[in-house]
């Protein structure tokens, strides 16, 4: 099987259809929903709030905790056993590192900001969708932020470089595949998440980062629009 | 704070109204039931009752029957009180609240015989379908019991079998064969605060509960499961009234399916 065009007919530099909304979980201090193709993420922010147990507290600044979780029915294969896996713990960690650079937590000593990411439905790109939702939820919670965070995956299938891989591309049989989730601070262009599975040449990677940046700026606009929509409603 | 809130709620109830202006046995509005919201599940539903939102997804797996019921499939109900949905919920294995929620939903479905377990048998003594029902609250603004029970039934109603070749389940291929529902059990939780009875408590009202009774009933009014909760006892007269409310309101909720 040679790979000539994308199965869903997208251009190689095109993301799947995106939907974003802010303020979807009323009990949270901030919340957002981000859908890209069949991958669907919710994020809720609680805090800054008191941190227990006390020894976890930092008297200099607040801390950020992130938790990524797939709902049991969110995978197209077998049920995902609840309770977290090594994979979900690692994604929680890189999510926290991806978000931290835009937050100013010095105002909240001894406190915690909790970010809970839940995925009702996944089909590749779930950590990126989670990060997009989380950064919108943090902004919705009214926290001081230097920038938003926008995330997407880039990669290659055979000799094609592409943006926002779906499941069929991520697991394309019998050819070299690379899957590279990235997150950036759109205003400075700085990268806060970079992971890779697969094989790719350095030159290809640099080209992929450029391709990714273009799509990330589009995602950034969608995130901003969703945030503005919510606050527009409040004004009326 | 708690005591003041409670006496305020009781004063309102005595004046036949509530914090948000509802009647005592009135559910919040709107009530919305959406079927098949999650493509990765074999069946799913999202239920909103006022601001409370619950998602339920169904996965079907092939397993071995229990030795004492070799020709019957089974259901497994799981509930996770996601910390995303309520500032009080914490990460970690299901606590007693989550376990009670799952078991109340389980009993409503199991005891009403909403599913004929014999129809879930693939090969006697060898292979059966396990219907796994997972409850995930998105926003807990009160009354998870009723919202989760309604969502579980709506999700079951939308469930289609994946294809199974005798060896492996192919989740990518759903068949047209639907899971058959024999009955429509509906759970209504009736709350006692002071000497008044209400349904569909919001977050504040849940803090003031003396006792609750979850009443599951089917179309003809037959009761199929109950669960009493709360710290205070109920009299026979209380139970009589609560059952009437539960059966009556069940008929109303069933229309949303």
Q: What does this molecule look like?
A:
The complex is a heterodimer of chains A (236) and B (257). Chain A is of the alpha+beta class and 236 residues long. Chain A has one domain: 2-Layer Sandwich (Ribosomal Protein S5, domain 2), CATH 3.30.230. Chain A is built from 4 helices and 10 strands. Chain A has a 5-stranded mixed beta sheet. In chain A, a hairpin with a 2-residue loop joins strand 6 and strand 7. The relative contact order of chain A is 0.19. Chain B has one domain: 2-Layer Sandwich (Ribosomal Protein S5, domain 2). In chain B, helix 2 packs across helix 3. The chains are: A alpha+beta (236), B alpha+beta (257). Chains A and B meet through strand 3 and strand 5 of A and strand 3, strand 6 and strand 8 of B.
Biggest β-sheet: strands ordered side by side in the sheet of chain A:
1-2-3-5-4
Strand content of chain B: 25-35%
- Look up the CATH topology of chain A: Ribosomal Protein S5, domain 2
End-to-end Cα distance of chain A: 55 Å
Strand content of the residues of chain A, in percent? 25-35%
Structural class of chain A: alpha+beta
Cα end-to-end separation of chain B: 39 Å
How would you describe the shape of chain B? elongated
Task: Specify the CATH architecture of chain A.
Answer: 2-Layer Sandwich
Annotate the secondary structure layout.
The complex is a heterodimer of chains A (236) and B (257).
Chain A: E1 18-22, E2 30-36, E3 39-50, E4 63-70, H1 86-99, E5 111-121, H2 126-140, E6 150-157, E7 160-163, H3 167-170, E8 177-185, E9 190-194, E10 197-198, H4 202-235
Parallel strand pairs in A: 4-5
Antiparallel strand pairs in A: 1-2, 2-3, 3-5, 6-7, 6-8, 8-9, 8-10
Helix pairs in contact in A: 1-2, 2-4
Chain B: H1 2-14, E1 31-35, E2 43-49, E3 52-63, E4 74-79, H2 96-111, E5 121-123, E6 127-139, H3 144-157, E7 160-164, E8 169-178, E9 186-193, E10 196-199, H4 203-207, E11 211-217, E12 223-229, H5 236-254
Helix pairs in contact in B: 2-3
């Amino acid at each position: 099987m040679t790979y000539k065009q994308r199965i869903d007919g997208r251009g190689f530099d095109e993301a799947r259809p995106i939907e974003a909304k802010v303020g979807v979980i009323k009990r949270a201090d901030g919340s957002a929903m981000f859908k890209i193709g069949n991958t669907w993420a919710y994020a809720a922010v609680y805090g800054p709030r008191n941190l227990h147990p006390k020894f976890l507290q930092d008297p200099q600044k607040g801390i950020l905790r992130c938790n990524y979780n797939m709902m049991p029915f969110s995978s197209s294969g077998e049920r995902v056993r609840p309770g977290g896996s090594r994979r979900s713990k690692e994604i929680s960690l890189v999510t926290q590192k991806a978000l931290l650079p835009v937050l100013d937590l010095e105002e909240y000593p001894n406190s915690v900001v909790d970010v809970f990411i839940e995925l009702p439905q996944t089909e590749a790109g779930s950590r990126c969708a989670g990060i997009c939702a989380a950064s919108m939820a943090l902004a919705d919670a009214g926290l001081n932020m230097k920038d938003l965070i926008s995330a997407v995956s880039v990669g290659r299938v055979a000799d094609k470089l592409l943006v926002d891989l779906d499941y069929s591309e991520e697991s394309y049989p019998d050819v070299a595949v690379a899957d590279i989730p990235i997150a950036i601070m759109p205003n400075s262009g700085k990268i806060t998440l970079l992971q890779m599975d697969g094989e790719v040449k350095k030159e290809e990677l640099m080209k992929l980062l450029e391709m990714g940046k273009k799509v990330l700026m589009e995602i950034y606009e969608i995130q901003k629009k969703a945030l503005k929509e919510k606050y527009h409603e409040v004004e009326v | 704070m708690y005591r003041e809130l409670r006496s305020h709620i009781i004063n309102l109830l005595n004046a036949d109204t509530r914090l948000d202006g509802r009647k005592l046995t009135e559910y919040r509005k709107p009530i919305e039931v959406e079927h098949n919201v999650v493509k990765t599940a074999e069946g799913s539903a999202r239920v909103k009752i006022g601001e409370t939102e619950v998602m339920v997804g169904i996965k079907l797996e092939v397993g071995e029957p229990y030795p004492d019921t070799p020709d019957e499939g089974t259901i497994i109900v799981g509930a996770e009180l996601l910390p995303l949905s309520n500032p009080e919920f914490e990460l970690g294995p299901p606590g007693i609240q989550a376990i009670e929620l799952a078991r109340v939903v389980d009993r409503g479905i199991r005891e009403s015989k909403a599913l004929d377990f014999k129809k879930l048998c693939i090969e006697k003594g060898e292979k059966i379908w396990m219907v796994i029902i997972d409850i995930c609250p998105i926003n807990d603004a009160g009354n998870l019991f009723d919202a989760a029970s309604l969502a579980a039934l709506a999700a079951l109603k939308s469930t289609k079998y994946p294809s199974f070749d005798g060896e492996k389940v192919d989740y990518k291929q759903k068949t047209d064969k639907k899971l058959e529902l024999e009955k429509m059990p509906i759970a209504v939780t009736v709350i006692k605060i002071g000497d008044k009875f209400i349904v569909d408590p919001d977050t504040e009202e849940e803090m003031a509960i003396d006792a609750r009774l979850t009443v599951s009933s089917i179309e003809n009014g037959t009761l199929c499961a109950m669960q009493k909760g709360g710290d205070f006892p109920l009299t026979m007269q209380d139970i009589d009234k609560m059952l009437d409310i539960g059966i009556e309101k069940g008929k109303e909720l069933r229309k949303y399916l």
